[in-house]
Amino acid sequence: MDVGNYSVPNTRLFPTLIGLVKTMYNKFEQRDVDYDTLAPVFGHKKAKSGSFGMKLAWMRAYKLIEGRGQVHVTETGRKIALPSPGSDEENLGVIEAITNLPLWRELYENYTKNSKDLPTEDFWISLREITGISPEEAKNKADMVRKAFLEDAIHIKVQKPIDSGGKNMGNQNQGGPSSNSSSPSGTASYGASDTYGIWVKEDLKAIEFLESQIEAIKSWINHEKQKLETKQV
């Protein structure tokens, strides 16, 4: 999808593109591989397949791979596919991949990096300020851009909120909705313990948006489970 001079890939980072870069790294590590060899690995009979070409284009957009004619996994792709044990490389790789998209970089720097939520009703205004598109185009594309960005950004690990005493905020609830004092003002929470927690603004649109992200959250959970299962083998 084009948004002014910016482009947004039609396929999200997780699970599709990350799955592809892991498959590629597992077979070739960071060696160059030609299209004819790579196409069957990605499930295509021919390298001239349009969908194969689009997969490469999307992976290049996030800079998970590089090269023409022959391609190889980048260092960003390697960090996600095989992070060094005990390091934060995977998270760094995800941030690098997301910020390799110019529009995502703007949104990350303006919001995610500063622990700010993307606006809901007036996001089109921010989108127009960044891209220079018309008000009509900004309004038409705002929801799609916001949804796509958050489906990628949800995989960035962020620090737990810190209280004025320097301690992680949270309690020992074992699950279920909560309105405890540890939750930020104006939010509803699920869990909110030292083990897990989900906070959402007490706003109907915010809750409906969280509901729309359930499949993306499931994808992230499956990704984390696979990592832990791999470590246990």
Structure description:
By secondary structure, this protein is mainly α. The protein folds into two domains: 2-153, Arc Repressor Mutant, subunit A (Orthogonal Bundle), CATH 1.10.10; 177-232, no CATH class. 51% of the residues lie in helices and 9% in strands. It has ten helices and eight strands. The chain has helices at 13-28, 35-41, 50-61, 75-81, 89-99, 102-110, 123-131, 135-153, 204-212, 214-232; strands spanning 2-3, 6-7, 33-34, 65-66, 70-73, 177-178, 187-190, 198-201. The chain has a three-stranded antiparallel sheet with strand order 3-5-4. Helix 4 (75-81) crosses helix 5 (89-99). The longest helix has 19 residues, at 135-153. The chain is globular, with a radius of gyration of 20 Å. It starts with a strand and ends with a helix. 24% of the residues are buried. Residues 159-181 have low confidence and may be disordered.
CATH fold name of the largest domain: Arc Repressor Mutant, subunit A
Number of domains: 2
Strand order of the largest sheet: 3-5-4
CATH class of the largest domain: Mainly Alpha
What letter string, H or E per element, gives the SSE order?
Answer: EEHEHHEEHHHHHEEEHH
Strand content: 5-15%
Averaged pLDDT, please? 83
Counting DSSP H or I runs of 4 or more residues, the number of helices is: 10
Radius of gyration, taken over Cα atoms and rounded to an integer in Å: 20 Å
Structural class: mainly alpha
Distance between the termini: 40 Å
Question: Runs with pLDDT <50, length 5+?
Answer: 159-181
Q: Let me know the largest β-sheet.
A: 3 strands, antiparallel
- Helix fraction bin: 40-55%
**How many strands?**
8
- Overall geometry: globular
